[in-house]
Amino acid sequence: MSERAAAGIRIERVVKIFGDVGITALNEVSLDIAPGEFVSILGPSGCGKSTLLRCVAGLDTPSKGQIVVGGVPVSAPPEHLGIVFQRDALLEWRSVIDNLLLPIEFRGGDSRAVRPHAKALLRMVGLEGFEDRYPSQLSGGMRQRVAICRALVDDPMLLLMDEPFGALDALTRDQLNIELQRLWLANRKTVLFVTHSITEAIFLADRVVVFSPRPGSIADVIHVDLPRPRKLAVRTSELFHGYAGRIRTLFEGMGLLKEDE
Ligand SMILES: Nc1ncnc2c1ncn2[C@@H]1O[C@H](COP(=O)(O)OP(=O)(O)O)[C@@H](O)[C@H]1O
Ligand SMILES: [Mg+2]
Fold it and tell me: In this structure, which ligand is nearest to the CA of 48?
């Protein structure tokens, strides 16, 4: 289904200081992400996850260091980028299919030609037949599915997701984890996925990058060696528990999780 090659990302010793408020958000973050890899970024609130994503998206610039996407240093938003935020940012006055075709219209592309692909994406997330509905007629989970399809419709080389399921109930979130895996297996985009759910981070990723509290730096990188497609039941496996335990221990070491004596 996918035509455009996925991009690798190189994050080189990135420091981000918000000078006006004297906050160091990111401290010497270095990370190489292979084309087509799925990487989860996991960390406490305020550790700089969104800042890092914004820098990769060219929406903000590092104070030091650099970021290279698809071999090109980022100085402005790279072409062929898909972004999904916690809030879906759908246009209420446009139907589902017209929301999906927006990125094509923005770049002056032939949206008629892309319609079949847009419909195929909707089918993959169970939204066949909803093309002509309006966002206000959809549940939160359905809206977020549309937002993900919209991020994928123009065949990006990179997909950035910032807590895309953070506002959804637990069941819907599980379902969307399955559907995102399905889309990723069919498209093999490079994905940088920010979450603060340990379970979600492991379930989806090839690697989980764990951040320390602010100033955010990489505390550990965990390779997730679970075959795909993964079923939700894998979360009760011994291997999965091992990964989750390792991450919880890290968070305990940072003073973020404390048990009662
Ligand atoms: N534009 C900004 N100006 C000043 N401080 C900011 C700005 N954006 C983020 N910060 C600060 O940088 C830190 C990291 O923020 P953020 O990247 O949003 O964290 P996260 O997404 O991990 O919760 C926070 O302390 C936040 O207050
Ligand atoms: Mg954030």
Answer: 1
